[in-house]
Amino acid sequence: MAVSTNASEPIRFAYWVPNVSGGLVISKIPQRTSWDADYNRRLAQIAEAAGFDYALTQIRFTAGYGAEYQHESVAFSHALLAATSRLKVIAAILPGPWNPTLAAKQVATIAELTGGRIAVNIVSGWFSGEFRAIGEPWLDHDERYRRSEEFIRSLRGIWTQDNFSFRGDFYRYTNYTLKPKPSAGLPEIFQGGSSRAARDMAARVSDWYFTNGNTPENIRAQVDDIQAKARENGHAVKVGVNAFVIARDTEAEARAVLQEIIDNADPEAVKAFGHEVKNAGKASPEGEGNWAKSSFEDLVQYNDGFKTNLIGTPDQIAERIVALKDVGVDLALLAFLHFQEEVQYFGEQVIPRVRALEAARERRAEAA
Ligand SMILES: Cc1cc2nc3c(=O)[nH]c(=O)nc-3n(C[C@H](O)[C@H](O)[C@H](O)COP(=O)(O)O)c2cc1C
């Protein structure tokens, strides 16, 4: 049984910030999306007006599969916050290059400057070549999550306690008091990954669990698993799911765009990416990971976003979003081909339909 803790809450919308070159698909299809600052500031304003709650930045230090240029996530998040007034921006943070001391201080300062609109996404790493290139040790799969969990416990401790002390294997604090602490509420802590280690960490310490795109049935299995464990731990966690949206006036048009993206895929880059991510997951004790079952076509969108099937007309997409909500999803994390135009279209055509479906369900539930 899905644990739908979210029935009366509107589903939230986030978009992937294209702060990395090449857009969100590994394809040579022409894209009007740009990774530059001006494009992204305008996009954030469009998204906020369109009804998006969050923007998620990416952290990448080097890429061997396209995505050749990257802006750093925390600095970039601040730029987007400065250009908007309601949108929350989630800064991706990678333990290793960051330690919790610096992250806690940086994020507390940005929270102060922006009325508490910054959040963090603690990522655990999947690209061994990147770690080697920057001289960071490449830990085993579950060791990466053990470090991420200590990172999150340290962040929370620093943000909430005076004289914070912590004895971990990766981080240590002795009577540390951060001044000032975040005053406009604690920054929310998101986390990505779907291996056993990722889920268990979410069920213990994260506010939000992000997972790759998938069918409602497969998402339901993950949600049930995580929520059962979270309940055992007395912890509350919400779930966000990735999807690549192709919303067009007709389903045929939307499907044709998907086909064009796949037909123009860069095979070498897709294979190189697939090799890295599958290897990273194979190193987990269960021998799987986020991308264990991803086909070539799935991998053309970095986080299996086609699998969620938000591809069709606004009505079809709205219904599928509500179906995700029914299996316990709290947030849809969305990527687009031409971000500015399509985020606007999504705000005009899809979000109102989702809200109408949610309202109709609420009325039915009250009547029952
Ligand atoms: C929504 C989402 C966003 C992510 N963002 C980043 C990122 O910006 N940089 C990064 O190196 N990894 C990122 N990751 C990768 C995860 O931190 C993790 O390493 C990966 O999903 C493999 O996890 P698994 O082996 O637990 O399945 C992201 C994952 C998800 C699901």
UniProtKB/TrEMBL annotation:
<keyword id="KW-0560">Oxidoreductase</keyword>
<keyword id="KW-0503">Monooxygenase</keyword>
<protein>
    <submittedName>
        <fullName>FMNH(2)-dependent dimethylsulfone monooxygenase</fullName>
    </submittedName>
</protein>
<dbReference type="Pfam" id="PF00296">
    <property type="entry name" value="Bac_luciferase"/>
</dbReference>
<dbReference type="InterPro" id="IPR036661">
    <property type="entry name" value="Luciferase-like_sf"/>
</dbReference>
<dbReference type="GO" id="GO:0008726">
    <property type="term" value="F:alkanesulfonate monooxygenase activity"/>
</dbReference>
<feature type="domain" description="Luciferase-like">
    <location>
        <begin position="27"/>
        <end position="330"/>
    </location>
</feature>
<keyword id="KW-0285">Flavoprotein</keyword>
<dbReference type="InterPro" id="IPR050172">
    <property type="entry name" value="SsuD_RutA_monooxygenase"/>
</dbReference>
<dbReference type="InterPro" id="IPR011251">
    <property type="entry name" value="Luciferase-like_dom"/>
</dbReference>
<keyword id="KW-0288">FMN</keyword>
<dbReference type="InterPro" id="IPR024014">
    <property type="entry name" value="DMSO2_SphG"/>
</dbReference>
<dbReference type="GO" id="GO:0046306">
    <property type="term" value="P:alkanesulfonate catabolic process"/>
</dbReference>
